[in-house]
Design goal:
By secondary structure, this protein is of the alpha/beta class. The protein is built from twelve helices and eight strands. The protein has an eight-stranded mixed β-sheet, sandwiched between helices. Helix 5 runs parallel beside helix 9 and helix 8 runs parallel beside helix 10. It is globular and about 55 Å long.
Length: about 300
Amino acid sequence: MIKVSIILPIFNVAPYLEEAFQSIICQTLKEIEIIAVNDGSTDNSEEIINKFKEKDSRIISFYQYNQGQSVARNLALKYARGKYIYMMDSDDVLSNPKALQICYEYAEKHQADFIFFDGESFSEKAVLRTSWNTNRTHLLEEAKSYNGEFLLNMMLDNQKHNCVVWLLMISHNYLNKIGLKFYPGIIHEDELFTTILTLKSNSIYCLKQSLIMHRIRNTSTMGNQYTKRNINCYLTVIDELFKFQDSDIIRKFSKYTLSKVFYTGHVIPLKDKFSIFLRTIKSGYLKYVGIKSTLVFWLKP
């Protein structure tokens, strides 16, 4: 039986890919499969994938022309056979050789829809922690089941909401039951995926351990310069969340998210701001942006 399917979307990460693969294949949990999807890389990522495939029969790979992380993950999910799903970024490193075993056994013990744990972020220039804090399990109790709406409310209230999928191990049955896929063609797709994943669940558990090192690169989604596309993709996330559920918790999430998005958005060129702001007004989202973030968006140099 395959206990965990590790989904690895890959795009131009050759300098880091060997380290990522090595941290997975050396895990103490051996009943795993590694589904690598090369999303049209133009470097030698495919060569590295094939090298590791020759060494380890647990690695399955696919190649597609560049369509983004959502499409790559959806392709991998189509072929995944594991009881649990773990989605890892292909430039990250599992920091504990027992990470997958610890997560699998904890999720099995509690029959969780999904579990979440902590991680550390570091810069590509040196193995140094960044200011992006992904630690939140200290707010909760272990071995206690949490309802998704309660959990999301609590995280928003404590400014600790974190959308990333690489801090989750998800029951494959639960994922199939709710029929959740990644929305194609956008960045920040985790915001939409994990919010719906959370709100549909009544069985979420936290694991008070840090198990992943997340690399922030200049060319990654988190490391790239903030652009018009970032804001437009966040607006699409809010659009889709209101289609999913028009509720107080979605309105609260929208305020939490868009106030930060537009506050950061002051850095984009003035010529790009008008169409974004018009879309925000037409969508009725200006009330979620707030006065302070609106002023910063338009007036801060």
